[in-house]
Amino acid sequence: MSKDTMSFALAEVLRSHVDRRDQQEQAKRRLRELIEEGLSSGSGRRLTRRVAAELKKRALGAPD
Question: What's the CA gap between 40 and 4, in Å, rounded?
Answer without folding.
Answer: 43
